[in-house]
Amino acid sequence: MPDLIEKYEIQMAEPGCSVGTGRWGVLVTLPNDISAVFPYLNAVLPKASYDHENQTITWTEPEQAYALRPTEMRISRVTDPAQGRAAVAELVARINRIWNERGTITPSTKQRKPPPVMEIFKLLPRTNCRQCGYATCMAFAAALSQGAAKLEQCPPLMPEAQEKLRILLASN
Ligand code: SF4
Fold first, then answer.
1. Which fold has domain 117-170?
2. Is the beta carbon of 97 within 6 A of some atom in ligand 1?
3. Which of 13, 25, 118, 134 could lock 17 by a disulfide, CB 3.0 to 4.6 Å apart?
């Protein structure tokens, strides 16, 4: 069975071109449309944000963030070009594996939207103390929205705000 992704081109964006992260970004250009795999990715990635109509799927993992469109894939928060190339190879292998195993996966076109970053931000202490490992409370709010951070990473967070955030994050 042929792989879904057999060829691709990689372009690296230097730090400074990746907004606010200080890390590299990677753009992968594909010669063929891979959107047929998106419902299968959506089924196996419970935290992904999927827009079936516009054919986009995004998700965040502890190290990298991913954004896929039919003929391109973007990976952000990459440390350097070598890590970028390794992340692309890993992503391509993962997509091909899921595509080849699609007979065992029930595809999902369920749309998910991440909780609004501003609503999360309003419940944070907003002191930019950096104890969470992020440069600002806004950056931490964005990571929470994408499922890439945990509330426990913010020591100054008061129990009442923590409970409200738990409900907000669980509602999406
Ligand atoms: S630990 Fe909490 S208060 Fe400090 S920067 Fe992170 S989110 Fe903001």
1. 3-methyladenine DNA Glycosylase II; Chain A, domain 3 (1.10.15)
2. no
3. 13
Ligand 1 geometric centre to CA of 144 (Å): 12
Identify the residue whose C-alpha is closest to ligand 1 atom 6. 132
Q: Please tell me the pTM assigned to this model.
A: 0.69
Q: Which residues are 59's β-sheet partners?
A: 66
Q: How many CB atoms lie within 10 A of CB 130?
A: 12
The dihedrals phi and psi of 72, each to the nearest 5 degrees, come to -150, 155
Once rounded to an integer, what is the mean pLDDT over residues 107-117?
86
Q: Which residue has the higher pLDDT, 124 or 134?
A: 124
Q: Determine the longest span between alpha carbons in the chain, in angstroms.
A: 54
